[in-house]
UniProtKB/TrEMBL annotation:
InterPro entries: Endo/exonu/phosph_ase_sf (IPR036691), Endo/exonuclease/phosphatase (IPR005135). Residues 21-204 form the Endonuclease/exonuclease/phosphatase domain. This is Endonuclease/exonuclease/phosphatase domain-containing protein. One of its GO terms (molecular function) is catalytic activity. It comes from Brassica carinata.
Length: 231
C-alpha cells in the first residue's frame, strides 16, 4: 500500500471523506499508525488485527465524526456512525470476504444475524466492501457457464435472508481484474448493499440525513478504491 500513497493523497484531496474503510491492506499492525498519520493525520481508526495478522479491514474517521464499534470479526467491522451536524446515526459494515468458500459462508451468516439485530432497529444500514464472490455469470467478463453455481446461490440466498440488495451505482461494473494481458479476466466482487425493502421509516431516516443513495466504484491507477460517497 505504501507505493500507492500518491494515489491515496490525490483521492483524499479530491473527495474530502470524513469516514471510510480500507480492505485487503496487507499491512502489519505496527505500521498502521504510520500509514494513517501519513495520509490522514489526526484521524482515528480501528481494525481487525485480532482476527488477522495482516489487518484485512480498517475503519477510519475524522475527529468530527462519532463512531461506536458494534462488531468485529475476521471478515467484517460494523460501526454506528454519526456524521457532523447530524443527530441520527447510520450503521456501516465494512467487509472483506475470505477467498475460502467455507470461511465466506461464515460472513453470510454474520450478515443475516446483523440484519435481525436490535442494534440496527430504526437505523439506516449499509454493507460495503469486497465480497470475493459474484452473484451471477454476468458479473464475470468470461463466464464458463450461464448457470448460477452453488457459491452464487449461497451468496444470493444469504442476501435474500438479510433482505439486502445492491445500491444504485455509477462507475465500473467490474471491480477486480487478474492483470494478465494474455488471458484477462474481470469480475464484480465489490458492492454496496442496503436493505432492498426500504420501508417508509427507513427511507425517511435516509432522507432526514440528506444522503443520496448512490455508490461509486472508481479505479485509481493501480489501486482498487471502492468508494461509496454519501453527499
Amino acid at each position: 500500500m505504501y507505493k500507492d500513497l500518491s494515489c491515496w493523497n490525490k483521492w483524499i484531496l479530491k473527495n474530502k471523506p470524513l469516514f471510510g474503510g480500507i480492505v485487503e491492506t496487507r499491512v502489519k499492525q505496527p505500521k498502521i499508525s504510520k500509514f494513517v498519520n501519513t495520509i490522514l493525520p489526526g484521524w482515528f481508526f480501528t481494525d481487525n488485527y485480532n482476527f488477522s495478522a495482516l489487518g484485512k479491514v480498517w475503519v477510519l474517521w475524522h475527529p468530527s465524526v462519532k463512531v461506536v464499534v458494534l462488531s468485529k470479526s475476521l471478515q467484517q467491522v460494523t460501526c454506528e456512525v454519526c456524521l457532523p451536524a447530524q443527530n441520527e446515526a447510520i450503521i456501516v459494515t465494512i467487509v472483506y470476504a475470505a477467498n475460502d468458500r467455507k470461511l465466506r459462508a461464515g460472513l453470510w451468516v454474520e450478515l443475516e444475524t446483523l440484519a435481525t439485530s436490535s442494534l440496527l432497529v430504526n437505523k439506516p444500514w449499509s454493507v460495503l466492501g469486497d465480497f470475493n464472490q459474484t452473484l451471477s455469470p454476468q458479473e464475470h467478463s468470461s463466464p464458463n457457464s450461464l448457470n448460477i453455481d452453488k457459491q452464487m446461490r449461497e451468496f444470493g440466498q444469504s442476501l435474500l435472508h438479510a433482505e439486502l440488495g445492491d445500491l444504485n451505482f455509477r462507475g465500473n461494473t467490474f471491480t477486480w481484474c487478474n492483470k494478465q494481458k494474455s488471458k484477462p479476466v474481470a469480475k464484480k466482487l465489490d458492492r454496496v448493499l442496503v436493505p432492498h425493502r426500504l420501508g417508509l421509516l427507513s427511507m425517511q431516516l435516509w432522507l432526514k440525513l440528506a444522503l443520496h443513495l448512490v455508490g461509486y466504484f472508481l479505479l485509481q491507477d493501480q489501486t482498487r478504491l471502492l468508494t461509496c460517497m454519501f453527499t
